[in-house]
Write a structure and sequence with these properties.
With about 400 residues, the protein is α/β, with parallel strands linked by helices. It has a single domain, classed as Alpha-Beta Barrel (TIM Barrel). Helices cover about 35% and strands about 10% of the residues. It contains 15 helices and eleven strands. The strands form three sheets. A six-stranded parallel β-sheet has the order 4-5-6-7-8-9. The protein has a three-stranded parallel β-sheet with strand order 1-2-3. Helix 3 links the parallel strand 2 and strand 3.
Length: about 400
């Protein structure tokens, strides 16, 4: 049934997962992750699933990019599916095929889960970088902040190279009185300060795409692309959750209050529809940066503006994909369009859709994109040099890979 399909996709693509199956013998134990809460959507009714994009008759120049021009570091990848050596080896084989030197596993968790991921990735530490996450259990109980800060410090000392924050903060987590917990909550101040003290970056994902806060219907671009046809989950219009601008205001207060902490705002801060606003934000807050994960469909449809923006802010932008198991094996449909966007001036081609309908509809945008042909010095910064500024443990292995590619 279509409903079951949507639930399956959501379980892979959002940051909170259901209980994973028992790991095979000799593998790291799968982490137990919580399902996000459900919310009422009054008046919603299912509609037919969206079909695949039509085939174009347009004849334009096409560059078949096989791998990244320079070794790349994916700062935003969900590798929670890695359990066995075979899982790691399969992923690394894909990385070798496309020229991806390293990726950051944002699903490292904390406590026992983190220890298992770190141990499992040890033989592959020159390719897989592990970030920790927070455990919000007990956040409304006395002492949670001190305990979680101490646990995160333990993870940093053990080898975590950064911290991932997901969108349950701001959209799902609640105080005892039922109000929503935001990222500028005083209980989190010690955590943001700890990251500054250890010089660990935070890949920070709060909020969501602005269209998810708008009514479901034909005037909503994400609905037109195929979202919410058989399930309204993760549309926030009139669900009682905080609004788009409200969450942004909390995020801005957090960044202003912690100027020594490095924040990498995921998905171009969910502001890719307004790059002038992103530019103003980066100008105002020197400790803020952005990654381009799951945002190529946004910047790729405004190639002239996007090229100017990426050249101007070339030191503040990180390559990322938001890759998950359902898309990681699609070399031609997922990985290579990223490089084609950055490296060529090709026109009107499919963006690297993170989610597809059963018929193949790209659920985050029913449109084509255009390449921006960045200069080599900008490509190097976005692909790996910016990441190395905040991932010093990756530098020795990365330098070897750069040298092997002829000193790229």
């Amino acid at each position: 049934m279509r409903f079951r399909f949507f639930v399956a996709i959501a379980a892979v693509c959002v940051a909170a997962y259901t209980q994973a199956p028992q790991a095979p013998q000799g593998a790291s134990e799968a982490p137990a992750k919580k399902q996000r809460p459900t919310y009422e959507h009054p008046g919603w009714k299912p509609t037919p699933l969206q079909t695949a994009m039509p085939k174009t008759s347009l004849k334009v120049e096409e560059h078949k990019i096989q791998k990244a021009k320079f070794p790349a570091i994916d700062i935003h990848f969900h590798a929670g599916f890695l359990r066995t050596p075979a899982d790691y080896q399969k992923l690394i084989a894909i990385m070798d095929q496309i020229g991806l030197a390293m990726l950051v596993n944002l699903d490292g968790g904390s406590g026992r889960t983190f220890d298992q991921y770190l141990k499992g990735s040890e033989p592959y530490k020159d390719r897989i970088i592990t970030f920790a996450r927070l455990n919000y259990d007990g956040i409304n109980e006395p002492g949670w902040s001190e305990k979680m800060t101490a646990e995160l410090e333990r993870c940093f000392r053990a080898g975590a190279q950064g911290l991932k924050i997901a969108k349950e903060l701001g959209l799902d987590l609640r105080n005892k009185d039922g109000s929503f917990i935001q990222c500028d909550d005083p209980r989190l101040d010690a955590i943001w300060e700890l990251c500054a003290r250890y010089n660990r970056p935070i890949v920070h994902h709060v909020n969501d795409q602005v269209d998810r806060f708008l009514p479901i219907g034909p005037e909503n671009e994400r609905y037109e692309a195929g979202l919410w046809r058989d399930n309204p989950a993760e549309n926030y219009y009139r669900t009682g959750q905080p609004g788009f601008e409200e969450i942004n205001q909390h995020r801005e207060r957090m960044i202003a209050r912690h100027p020594k902490t490095t924040f990498i705002l995921a998905h171009i801060a969910h502001l890719g529809y307004d790059l002038q606003r992103v530019a103003a934000f980066l100008d105002k807050y020197p400790n803020a940066n952005v990654d381009l994960s799951a945002a190529i469909q946004e910047v790729g449809r405004q190639p002239h503006t996007a090229r100017k923006f990426l050249i101007q802010y070339q030191d503040r932008v990180f390559f990322g994909t938001d890759g998950v198991i359902s898309r990681a094996t699609d070399v031609d449909g997922f990985w290579r369009p990223h490089f084609r966007f950055f490296e060529t001036e090709d026109e009107y081609f499919d963006h690297p859709a993170q989610m597809l309908s059963p018929q193949g509809a790209p659920l985050h945008g029913r449109w084509k994109i255009y390449g921006i042909g960045l200069p080599d010095d900008v490509l190097r910064k976005i692909y790996y040099q910016n990441a190395l500024r905040y991932l010093p443990a990756a530098r020795p292995a990365m330098e070897k890979r750069v040298a092997a590619r002829g000193g790229d």
